Amino acid sequence: MSLRLSIDRISKSYDGNAVLDGCRFEFEAGKTYALIGSNGSGKSTFLRICALLEQPDKGAVRFFCGDAEQPHEIPLKRKITLVLPKTGVFNSSVFNNAAYGLKIRGIAGNEIKEKAARILKLVKLAGKSAQNAQTLSSGETQRLGIARAMVFEPEIIFLDEPTAFVDAESKGIIEELISKFKDRQRTVIIATHDLHQAERLDSQILSMTEGRLKLL
Ligand SMILES: Nc1ncnc2c1ncn2[C@@H]1O[C@H](COP(=O)(O)OP(=O)(O)O)[C@@H](O)[C@H]1O
Ligand SMILES: [Mg+2]
Q1: Residue 169 lies in a domain
Q2: Number of domains present in the structure of the chain
Q3: Which of 28, 68, 131, 182 has the greatest number of C-beta atoms within 10 Å?
């Protein structure tokens, strides 16, 4: 059964400035949501809180499987992931970077090889498996960062402006990958400034204004 995210009146302030102010939304499993809003409107803060990397001051982030609420523990945390606008990579091969998320989940060696190879093919980095990841171009680095997040097939993926710093070719590859992911009944929540991108990904548009979310 798919994991479902429910945001219940979350608020967050930094140094007395309210960023999120009673934000609420019920995300449907298997859909893609594009989060839009001006710079500083709180999109990244919202995504970090949803991905359980930061706590709200008030309100709750809840995950459900059917009617059963899932505790914020490692089994849940392994089903969600956040990709940042500029992902970091380890000082190791492209292949090892792609395989990392599978290794820490205790997946068997042959399955790791197969899954990492498959995802690298999807982001068009199969020919660079042996190359040190730190020598990739910025577009390739971002493709690898997304591959690394998707390789373990999270149920919900949060993407914070994943194509802000990449060229058109990498953008196309990344969007294709996101679309494939969505075809598998996973939930995608992507912050973007690009309304055309939101359309290409066939997403529901959520606007962040004055600390609240509104479905457009
Ligand atoms: N860790 C933090 N400490 C202090 N202020 C922060 C922190 N994170 C975000 N902010 C502030 O919160 C506001 C919203 O930021 P952010 O969530 O990054 O917006 P967006 O992603 O929509 O551009 C900004 O004014 C930013 O300076
Ligand atoms: Mg941001």
Answers
A1: yes
A2: 1
A3: 182
For residue 79, being part of any structural domain is answered with yes
**E strand residue ranges, the chain:** 3-14, 17-26, 32-36, 58-65, 68-69, 80-83, 156-160, 187-191, 204-209, 212-215
DSSP designation for 164: T
Question: Is 134 contained in some domain?
Answer: no
Ligand 1 atom with the smallest distance to the CA of 48 is 17
> How many angstroms is it from 18 CA to the middle of ligand 1?
10
Look up the CATH number of the domain holding residue 10. 3.40.50.300
Average confidence (pLDDT) over 87-114: 92
**pLDDT score at 89:** 93
pLDDT band of 123, cuts 50, 70, 90:
very high
Q: Is there an atom of ligand 1 within 6 Å of 42 CB?
A: yes
| Domain membership flag for residue 142 | no
pTM exceeds 0.70: yes
CA 45 to centroid of ligand 2, rounded, Å: 7
List all residues 6 or more positions away from 169 whose beta carbon is below 8 Å from its beta carbon: 139
Mean model confidence pLDDT for the chain: 95
